[in-house]
Amino acid sequence: MSAEQPAETASAGNPLADRITTADGSKPEGTTETTDNEQADGAAAQLGGSELNEPDYTVEVKLSDLQADPNNPLYSVKSFEDLGLYVKPRALDLPFHLS
Question: Which of 20, 25, 28, 39 has the most CB within a 10 Å radius?
Fold first, then answer.
C-alpha cells in the first residue's frame, strides 16, 4: 500500500452494511436489514442453520451387475483377450493400419 492511502481496518464482527460509505464519505441513511445469525452460514438446524431436508435412502449397486448389462456404459469384456489387443502388429504393417 502506498503512503498516500491510509490502511483501513474493518471489524470482523460488524456486518458489511455498517462499513459502507457514500462517495462524499458519509454513511448512507436508512434502515438496514439484518439476517438471523442462525441461518446466515447455511449450517444444519442443530448447529443453528437452515432446516434443509436430507435424503433418507441408501443405494447399493454392485459393479458386477452394471458390467453385466450390455445397455449400461460400464458394460465391458472380461479379459483383454476378448478385446483382441494382445496381438502385436508387425512394424511393416503399421503404415497400412494408419491409413
Answer: 39
Confidence of residue 93 (pLDDT cuts 50, 70, 90): confident
Instruction: Give CA angle at 84 (80, 90), nearest 5°.
Output: 120
Side chain identity at residue 70, one-letter code: P
Take residue 19 and report the three cell numbers written for it: 462499513
pLDDT the model gives residue 67: 82
Query: How far is 6 from 8, CA to CA, in rounded Å?
Result: 6
The C-alpha cell at 84 is 483382441
**What is this structure's pTM?**
0.23
Q: Which residues contact 97 (CB under 8 A, 6 or more apart)?
A: 89
Q: What is the pLDDT of residues 7-34, one digit of tens each?
A: 455 455 567 667 777 777 676 666 555 5
Grid cell for residue 24: 462524499
Extract the C-alpha cell encoding 83. Answer: 478385446
